[in-house]
């Protein structure tokens, strides 16, 4: 079974394309025009062992909001399409990831029921060329369009770069765990028979 997908989305504000191989080796080519966001998506792919290509152009003369949110939408849809009917996946994933003084926890359920619980307070308004509040916006768009129940909690940290990095690495690791195929699972991991 090949678990790959490509999704494109074009609006008056952005044009985003993502290609994903769930069963990859962590290779990424990311170009969104927002350097810090590119760095975070590279970390996400590397630590999730996903092969991921993302290209995005957007109205960065306004700010990064539309580009980052729309990338979350497209990436969420790409995961949903690549996983298909979710046959045989482990469904749940949890990861605690330290990054120097910061520690993040991500727990998720590929349930078909989108939800984001986000607890993280960044000490600065911007991390590089990205508004720190857009971390939450990306995660919300991703969770909604991937059909994932996503809980993100930054337990502690001081350096905003490290804090965001721990979150994106933990997201990758938790998704890697949840998307793994398990031969013991007959159909989907649900008493309902569907996810």
Describe the structure.
The protein is an alpha+beta fold and 195 residues long. The chain has one domain: Ribosomal Protein S5, domain 2, CATH 3.30.230.40. The chain has 4 helices and 10 strands; from the N terminus they run βββαβαβββββαβα. Strand 3 (28-31), helix 1 and strand 4 (51-58) form a beta-alpha-beta unit. The radius of gyration is 16 Å and the shape is globular.
Secondary structure topology:
Elements: E1 4-10, E2 14-21, E3 28-31, H1 35-48, E4 51-58, H2 65-83, E5 92-99, E6 102-109, E7 115-119, E8 126-127, E9 130-131, H3 134-146, E10 149-156, H4 160-179
Helix pairs in contact: 1-4, 2-3
Describe the structure concisely for a colleague.
This protein has helices at 35-48, 65-83, 134-146, 160-179; strands at residues 4-10, 14-21, 28-31, 51-58, 92-99, 102-109, 115-119, 126-127, 130-131, 149-156.
